[in-house]
Amino acid sequence: MIDLTFIKGKIVHDDLSPLQNIDPANQIDSLKEDMLQVEYPGAFLLDIGWYPSFDITGSFQIRAIKDYDWDTPLFFAKAETTQLLIKEMMVAQNLINKD
Fold first, then answer.
1. Of 32, 85, 97, 99, which is most buried, counting CB atoms within 10 Å of its CB?
2. Could you report the per-residue pLDDT of 19-66, keeping only the tens digit for each?
3. What is the value of pTM for the model shown?
4. In what order do the strands lie in the sheet with 36-40?
5. In-domain check, residue 1
C-alpha cells in the first residue's frame, strides 16, 4: 500500500493507495488515468494518474490545478516510480499550501 498520510487536503477519489510500493510494471493492470484526486481550500486540486492507462511505457502524471483550469496547471511532473511519485506529490502539495 502507498501511504498517503502526508496528504493535507480532502481525498475525494483514491485508487492510488491500494498500489504496492513496487515497480509499476508489476501492477500495470491497476494503472489508469484517474488514480487520486485531492481537494484543498481555495479551489485547488491535486490530481494523479497514469498516462496512457495500462501502458507499461507510461508514467504517473502529477498536476496541481487552481479554479479547475486544467489547461494551465500550477504544477506538472511525471514519475516512473512510486518513490518519485511521492516526492513530486509533496512538491505539488507544498506549492498548493503556499498560495
1. 85
2. 988 888 889 999 999 999 999 999 999 999 999 999 999 999 999 999
3. 0.93
4. 10-14, 36-40, 44-51, 59-66, 75-79
5. no
DSSP code, position 19: S
Host domain of residue 15 = 10-98
Domain count, the chain: 1
- Number of neighbouring beta carbons within 10 Å of residue 65: 22
Q: Report long-range pairs for 32-39 (Cβ below 8 Å, ≥24 apart).
A: 35/60, 36/4, 36/11, 37/11, 37/12, 37/13, 38/7, 38/9, 38/10, 38/11, 38/12, 38/93, 39/9, 39/10, 39/12
SS3 30: helix
Phi-psi category of residue 97: left, alpha or beta, with phi > 0 → left and psi -120 to 50 → alpha: alpha
**Cα 94 to Cα 88: distance, rounded to the nearest angstrom:** 10
